[in-house]
Amino acid sequence: MEPLRLNVEVRGFHNGANDLTRAEHVHRLTGSGDRIERVGAWMFPQRWPLFRGSGWNRAVREGRVTVHRFEPATHVGPRSYISRTALLPDGRSHLARTAETVVTLIRDHFRSHAQEDPRP
Description:
Blueprint: E1 6-10, E2 25-30, H1 35-43, H2 55-61, E3 65-69, H3 94-116
Parallel strand pairs: 1-2, 2-3
Protein name: HK97 gp10 family phage protein
């Protein structure tokens, strides 16, 4: 089986130094309340737009990075992405939304590859 070339970042940040050349797509689950993720974007030079040749910036330019906004989630604390107690207006917990999104992204990735390369 070929490795899953899909990167889903939850409660993390990409420092830009890792090799993204083999990643078909990177999905960033983030929110405006996630100060830790924002700090990572300016802390690591590979993420700065000035460094156009970095793996991160090449992936962004090539459209291989999708940002999913998880408002009003935060990185840590009672409103974090994995909080069981913080509720969205539709009644789901932050954890349920995060889990559903990750499962959907993985399923969609496999479905798109199954259509491209149907195996018996």
